[in-house]
Automatic annotation (TrEMBL):
The keyword Iron-sulfur does not apply. The lineage of its organism: Archaea, Methanobacteriati, Methanobacteriota, Stenosarchaea group, Halobacteria. Its EC number is 5.4.4.2. The keyword Isomerase applies. SUPFAM superfamilies: ADC synthase. This is isochorismate synthase. Belongs to the isochorismate synthase family. Residues 181-432 form the Chorismate-utilising enzyme C-terminal domain. GO terms for molecular function: isochorismate synthase activity. It holds the Pfam family Chorismate_bind.
């Protein structure tokens, strides 16, 4: 397929989609059974989805990429041939994501990751709702019901769910940083000076690690461990080409659209977890009461409301609260709305929120480009799925990493405002690496270097 042109167009192309029940299996059971997937997705209150191969793949570059992906996917989904009685949970869905910047080049570690890429899986397994289903999708002039049915039967015959528990972590040989502690201090100090000078209000600066593993990366093990520790998070793994896998367990919903109901929220401002319940409560109390954290958070809430205003109505802000995860706690404000817009239009309106970009957005993006010494690629960008009716869910790809055989590159960042302290922000970033590092470290002496845990 020509990645610039998006979907190869074929006259009278049809999308044939059929579904069959499988023996029930967990998400990792599916992953251990059917081989290396191209997409994995699971979200709170949603089924797990694993996709193999592509009935169709759409890609698009530049600032218009959201609309282009939608148009190209709609062209495929428009010709859907699927029995009305087929289970809705197993309907065909496009899964994938976008790069953070529209000028993404897809080079270096991001080789194989276009500016956006979504697949309609050839084989799509959904599980986690009490039943496990396989859907086979085929698109193009050669798509036939007979071939689809054959593949369905073939998957069912091969399907003997393997529910073994994860092996012990692969271990870490070495860890290098994209940004030293001294460089970070300079970056944060220069940025707070720009903020004080009035150039901008807030910007999220990030960094990355290069981790070399002792044993090869196992996606089923990584997904299982992340699911055990972060059950309330959005777990994803995306491999748009034969190259690296981008995966993670993000706490941040960018947006869900289900019928006209829209769910989003502001997740910003971070402290660690206490060693004791008292210390933990004290940290949460500081998070709630500190004017620095409230400002850092409230600019995100206000901006998301503005971002939604053009694409949604009945925008309502819930109560700000503390959201506790394994190693950090965040301020979180839920936001709901109503909209007829396609979820990709909502994604376009919301990306990036100042939880991962900044304010004003253009100035923040400029500071990010001028300051960061690594390529964000798909980190902190929208990942998720959409269907034919324009429903879908997107997470912000945080607590994430790029992985190939024995190398992993985790990413993490922190919101910088006028009174940010470089050492406090450094410590916050180290905590945000933990979800990924804990998947790989054996606990036997491997650390990220400076004992900053
Ligand atoms: C940038 C990250 O997290 C984001 C930034 C936060 C902050 O600045 O407090 C909190 C949650 C996320 O919106 C990350 O995890 O890498």
């Amino acid at each position: 397929m020509d990645s610039r042109e998006g979907v190869a167009r074929a006259d009278a192309a049809e999308l044939v989609s059929r579904t069959l029940r499988l023996p029930d299996a967990s998400l990792t059971g599916v992953l251990r059974t059917l081989g290396r997937p191209n997409v994995v997705w699971t979200a709170p209150e949603e089924p797990g989805i694993v996709g193999y191969g592509a009935a169709a793949q759409v890609t698009a570059d530049g600032p218009e990429r959201f609309a282009a992906v939608r148009q190209r996917a709609d062209d495929v989904l428009a010709s859907l041939d699927r029995p009305a009685a087929a289970p809705a949970v197993a309907r065909p869905r496009f899964l994938g994501g976008f790069a953070f910047h529209d000028g993404h080049t897809g080079t270096g570690p991001w080789d194989g990751f276009p500016t956006s890429s979504f697949v309609l899986p050839h084989v799509q397994v959904v599980t986690g709702t009490g039943k496990t289903w396989v859907t086979v999708n085929a698109h193009g002039p050669d798509a036939s019901e007979a071939a689809v049915e054959r593949t369905l039967r073939d998957v069912r015959e091969r399907f003997a769910p393997d529910e073994r528990a994860a092996a012990s972590p692969p271990g870490v040989v070495a860890t290098a940083r994209t940004t030293s502690r001294a460089e970070w201090r300079e970056q944060v100090t220069a940025t707070t000076e720009r903020i004080t000078a009035g150039e901008l209000e807030k910007v999220v600066l990030a960094q990355a690690l290069d981790v070399t593993l002792v044993e090869a990366f196992s996606l089923p093990d990584a997904m299982e461990r992340l699911g055990d520790t972060y059950p309330s998070c959005f777990r994803f793994a995306l491999r748009p080409t034969d190259g690296a896998t981008f995966f993670g367990a993000s706490p941040e919903r960018l947006v869900t659209r289900a019928d006209r109901d829209v769910r989003t929220g502001a997740l910003a401002a971070t402290v660690g977890r206490g060693e004791t319940p008292d210390e933990d409560q004290q940290l949460a109390a500081d998070l709630r009461s500190s004017s620095k954290y409230r400002h850092e958070h409230d600019v995100v809430t206000e901006r998301i409301r503005d971002q939604l205003a053009g694409v949604a109505t009945a925008i309502e802000t819930g109560e700000r609260r503390v959201r506790k995860l394994e190693t950090v706690q965040h301020l979180f404000t839920p936001i709901t709305a109503s909209s007829d817009a396609h979820v990709l239009d909502l994604v376009e309106a919301l990306h990036p929120t100042p939880a991962v970009g900044g304010l004003p957005p253009d100035a923040a993006l400029r500071v990010i480009r001028e300051t960061e010494t690594f390529d964000r690629g798909w980190y902190a960008a929208p990942v998720g799925w959409f269907d034919r009716s324009g429903d879908g869910t997107f997470a912000v790809a945080l607590r994430s990493a790029l992985a190939d055989e024995t190398h992993v590159r985790p990413f993490a960042g922190a919101g910088i405002v006028a009174d940010s302290d470089p050492d406090t922000e450094w410590a916050e970033v180290q905590l945000k690496y933990r979800p990924i590092l804990d998947v790989f470290e054996t606990g036997e002496g491997a650390t990220t270097g400076e004992g900053e845990r």
